[in-house]
Write a structure and sequence with these properties.
about 220 residues; mainly beta; 3 helices; about 25% strand; globular
Length: about 220
């Protein structure tokens, strides 16, 4: 059931392995150090935007997919500068130029790297867990909820007297477009309302896709 509600599910085996340790406090309470992992070697003058990443919806950056993967300790895959990348996501920072940077460790690499999120394409969480080597600076609890204050609202215009005309003027829809992505085949769906239900559709290859509920990728 959750497969249709979340971009990706962590492997059940890795989740069950952590259950005994998480319940150890019942028999023998053990204080957990606040700084169990070192901070990633990131310049200190860069502002962390993880708590407020939701305000960047609508810019085509796909930050929620990145934050979901990081919060759930899942590798994320995306295309960057023409190459397919598989990385461990650790932090989102804003540079003085205004660029939003993803600090991540690329699988097979030797050091943490900064990726400009404006140049990241088709970011999607995988089902591959990873063991963090640094503190992960994302919202705790996984996928960030949709906050009403973060979604553009339509403002009602002041009432005016309607003039009679011989022809009806053309009307244009005013309001945000909600772009949902299918977690099974990554196909995009544009909705005029915040409704994650997906219509029946074909996956690449022509088969019927099983995805029926997408996750919000951006608001434009």
């Amino acid at each position: 059931m959750l497969r249709h509600q979340l971009p990706q599910l962590p492997p059940i085996d890795s989740m069950l392995e952590g259950v005994p340790a998480s319940l150890q406090w019942i028999d023998t309470p053990v204080p957990i150090p606040a700084a169990a992992l070192p901070r990633a070697p990131i310049p200190g003058d860069l502002e962390s935007i993880a708590p407020a990443g939701i305000r960047y919806w609508g810019r085509g950056l796909g930050l929620e997919a990145i934050r979901f993967a990081g919060s759930n300790r899942l590798l994320i895959r995306f295309t960057y500068h023409g190459r397919d990348r598989l990385v461990e996501p650790y932090s989102l920072r804003q540079a003085g130029t205004g660029n939003i940077l993803l600090y991540a460790w690329e699988v097979g690499g030797t050091h943490i790297k900064a990726f400009n999120t404006a140049e990241i394409r088709n970011a999607r969480p995988t089902d591959q867990p990873f063991t963090p080597r640094y503190r992960i600076e994302f919202v705790s609890g996984g996928f960030a909820p949709i906050l009403p204050s973060a979604i553009p609202q339509r403002h009602a215009a002041a009432p005016t007297r309607r003039l009679r005309t011989t022809t009806s003027p053309r009307t244009h829809r005013v309001g945000p477009t909600y772009v949902f992505r299918c977690p099974a085949c990554s196909k995009e769906f544009r909705h005029t309302s915040n409704n994650a239900t997906l219509r029946r559709h074909k996956a690449p290859g022509g088969r019927t896709c099983s995805g029926r509920r997408g996750y919000l990728d951006r608001v434009s």
